[in-house]
């Protein structure tokens, strides 16, 4: 079954007038991925259900809102389907980010019935060798089965791949898996040097390897070997020596403006990577107040996180300087902070 293309990412111009709230309802996860930006050292009191419902009420009042459930693995949260059903009844489009390993035919149907219409699934290898080395034994098979259940149910699927030392030379093969599954929306990003990935720096790609990965992506696109496949390059994927065809979408960072993340503690951050850049807390201020304060007072300084090389890049107008979190985290690691 061929699917329609996933359209709900706040990173792209087609969604420039939307506001996406990423609800990180839990840090719990059934996987311990070596390349994950999250950390196991999570502390702080978790929000009661009432705060999440109040947040969904606020979100419904904003112009063109979208709700993206994330984590951790959001499917480990016992109230996920209730949250989704509540938000859906307020006509808020709902997406979920998942590793798909917990999804069964029955659960997939319950997800759809609750109002979850789209899913972004992580797939980091073309086979069980590269994928399972990152995510755990048996996860490749479970993820593929989960994707199939989602598609059979009628939930629109996009796939996100994190390029790393284990898979940067098998992107063509990953594309084959994506298309064979019936998915035609493929997002590609690099590891952000944060969280658990800092314990596994051997997975980080160097500049030459990133360039090789990008060339593979361009070869896939220019050869038209997978007709209909829509490739999206997330921030930090392009380089100054490449010409990106118009058919490939290049992300620009929406953090703090067109998207925010609410953590399980209620803390609001511009994106999941910039955990030290706390914008406020939903137990103290409304989400709209937090967003306006961030835009008015600090967004100019946060756009700061553009590397010197990015400023000279001919693709600067496409990605607007890449991923600020990548630049920030890389600088922190480089300086030993």
Structure characterization notes:
The protein is built from twelve helices and eleven strands. Helix 2 packs parallel to helix 3 (105-114). By secondary structure, it is an alpha/beta fold. The chain has an eleven-stranded mixed beta sheet with strand order 8-7-6-5-4-3-2-1-9-10-11. Strand 9 and strand 10 (267-269) form a beta hairpin.
Counted beta strands: 11
Largest sheet: 11 strands, mixed
Give the overall form: globular
Order of helices and strands: EHEHEHEHHEHEHEEEEEHHHHH
Binned, the helix content reads: 25-40%
Low-confidence stretches: 1-8, 10-15
Tell me the strand percentage band: 15-25%
Major beta sheet, strand line-up: 8-7-6-5-4-3-2-1-9-10-11
| First-residue to last-residue Cα separation | 49 Å
Regarding quaternary structure, what we see is single chain
User: How large, in whole angstroms, is the Cα Rg?
Assistant: 19 Å
Number of helices: 12
Structural class comes to alpha/beta
What integer is the average pLDDT? 84
List the helices and strands and how they pair.
Elements: E1 19-24, H1 49-60, E2 65-70, H2 80-88, E3 94-98, H3 105-114, E4 116-122, H4 128-135, H5 139-153, E5 156-163, H6 171-181, E6 185-190, H7 207-223, E7 230-233, E8 249-250, E9 259-262, E10 267-269, E11 280-281, H8 287-297, H9 299-302, H10 308-311, H11 316-319, H12 324-334
